[in-house]
Amino acid sequence: MALAICGTYDQGEEGTSSPALNAMLDALPGLGCCRCFRQGAVTFGCRELRDCADESENGISRSFLSARGLDIIADVRLDNRAELLQLLGVADPEDAYIPDCEILIRAYEHWGEDCPLHVYGDYAFAIWDSRRNQLFCVRDALGIRPFFYSHIPGRIFAFASDIAALLALPEVDDELDEEYVVSYLMAVMQEREATFFREVRTLLPGHVMTVHDGTLHMSRWWHPENVPDVHLDSDEDYERGFVDLYSLSVRHRIRDVPSVGIHLSGGLDSSSVAVLAARELRDSKQQRPHMFCWHPPPGDHLTEAEENEYRLIRSVCRQENLKARYHALSTESILDILERDIVRFPDSSGTLIHESLVQKSAADLGVAVMLSGWGGDEVCSCRGFDYFDELLRIGNLVRLFRETGILSIRTWRILVSAILRLSKHSGAVRYAVAFFRGEMPSLNRSFIDAAMARKYPKRREAAHGRSVRDTQLKRLDQGHLERRMEDWTSSGAKKGIEYRYPLLDRRLIEFVLGLPPEQFRAEKRTRWFFRRSLRSVLPPEILEQSVKTDPVRYLHLNAAMAGALPVIARHLDSRTSDPLRAQYVDMARLRRCMEKRMAGDKSRQEGKMSRALRILDWRTELK
After folding, report:
1. What is the pLDDT of residue 405?
2. Which of 41, 447, 482, 513 has the fewest CB atoms within 10 Å, i.e. the most exposed one?
């Protein structure tokens, strides 16, 4: 099971005090006990996610280990233990008794700083190499496990699974990073290493960092753009290879887990995770999984679109003999999220509006691991729209017209944008290209203060590339994947829940990135490779669904938000001064939009409105 970890490497004379270390440990999320370990200038600490009162001696060695001049702390779940032990020359009878930390140390001894290339799974770890006087830090390829750090030159380097643990140190200032705040409010791509705090950074996914003599050196160990092409003899071989890897990914993530929860929305990604996991648990005679939906319980007199939303969920449950648990949003649950300060408590992110209810339900049922289909859209089940651009670029107009229809709007957008790209790259041409590609961003209607927007101008980055693989790589590199996983890790840990993402398995990702582009689009169907590969897994209703809009879920979200706004408005009216961080927000415009929404205006402003409210920390006591 996962751990929340932290550590310090003191570069000053005094070293980390016990009260400072205890403050870090207290700030780590989790329900279990804390442990710490000191070795010279280095201190490591961790907190278990769940109660560890009955943990064996072997369990202790999962988090810390000292061997041959190396000390390690690791939050790790290995997928290729047997393969690693064989490569490292470990005899078979020993492997069951060797903790993951020991395997990581042996991998570091054998391959040095290239060791992550050989290690598959979810992990964040730090190794103190006393022989080199060097701290070696690693984060997994997709950023499943968080790793934040702060470096105060000449004084301290500190790292942790959670930002709150770093802010607990007296050396780490909590001054805001204004540019990051502006990016957040405008809902545009943020600098991937940045956080809300100037002195707290994140180690990027697929990167290593060494700390030596007060100097940080960062390098990337995973290069998805360099994965080799996959060439197989037939479509059936591609499909079989994908399903084998996907099934293995699910199997690794539920191995020996006492109680598994699974998100189920009725979409391709969550439904495929649910079916594969349910079958694997049944075959291994483990407990049946708990299914969790963000939807409210189905009511009477549903429209056709609303009935279809539940029909998809029911089809999975009926096929695998599962029971869906629905969760109704309320004004109170919305307020519970909106009154949290997102700057200091990332578990108030927008997705937690629904997920916090799921977490409470899952914790009551004793769920230890929650499986999610999050991340599938980016690579494994991508829609393949950019295949059309790729066909045009290589001059295959026959297939382009066959796939899109010569009179379709999409065809002419592709053709016109290609012609414009041949022109000089003036600002007007770039905007025209974006428009004809269907990517033109709407006018910025966020609630950011105009002066702040001018101070830190931002533009929305295009999410599409010039080929299927180019787009997949862009989406992996945007930062939204690891940010949501960091938020869910922090919030889940507070309830003893670990999140795992089968569609973000590194081997699976590398396989799909290497596929020929024509695998992703055919017969005018999006996500074609994913649908074809899983036709023996998913119910027909899921496979045939072309668009999924979740009208019931959004209707209830908007209704709950509408109920919360009068409460927030009354609180703002009662204040004698503006809330904390009001300088970032156009308060007049925010209040006007709140009033219009309360009067029945149906404009979709909830997302941007909730961002502004969570930045404001409007529940703090009046000054």
Report:
1. 65
2. 41
